[in-house]
Amino acid sequence: MAGRVATALFCSSSCRHKYRYRQRAEIAAKLQAERLCVYCLGPLPEHLNLSAIYCSDPCRRKKWEADNPEKVARSKANHEARLRERAAARRLDRPPCPVCGTQLPATRGPKAIYCSNSCNQKAHYLRHHAWHLLRMKKYREGREPYFARKARENTAKRHAADPGYVLVLRARARVDYSTHRERRLKVNRRYARAHVPLRNMHSGKRRALQKGAETFLFTLKDWERLKVRYRNCCSYCGKFSARLHKEHVIPLERGGRHSLGNILPACPTCNYSKQDSYVMEWRMRRIRIRRELELRAARKKKRLSAHAPGLVAAPK
Fold it and tell me: How would CATH label the architecture of 215-299?
């Protein structure tokens, strides 16, 4: 302690801090030993702060009830009155459920409108019908392949269980169409005008089924991706076309499939020219036609040069 002044009590600042911390701990322990609950006179827990006077919430509530008996009696009376009013309202004749028309049971509260939660959900669906339809549409668009596969599986199971199921469905469809023919035609025409690409997809699949070809899932999104892949150009001549056709590489008449692997975008000229031929047959036919046209032009030119030599221009 050579470096400390004569009035210093501690050899270092660390010793001074340790001494003060020990003093504070002794004072806190003394206060903690003297702290008692106001209601039950028990010692207060250590985790409570120094301003706490109750050991728990039940003691605080019991102390308040002991100090305010009039307020407690008034609160109990009000609660019993509310219970009596609710029981009386349940016994009164209330309007029936607006969804199913049944009388509301006595277990429903005085503000209840529907007889059950299922009726409440049905009323909510009716009030927000458009929103539910939009939600289901977005959900189905995201899982279109899954729903198509499940529909095919369920149809196959139903046909296996009941072979006459198809005949029953067709009979129902005929009866419904004959009953509502004008309305069905009007709806179909309006839908066809509003969904031209989708109508073309259905007509292509229908034509494949009529010709007895195998059909696989080929959606409108697949067709749009196919056009983007070929940059909206014909896959044969490479020319741009705003009206691309779905051309089957192996024709449907010759055992081709209506699937993504057998369809290419083609311009109307190439599609009408190819018809039901294979690609190699179609190209050889085009070469033969081109040669015949060239020979025909050469013969015509030769005849003109023989009869009128001055009419035929000399080659450059």
Answer: Orthogonal Bundle (1.10)
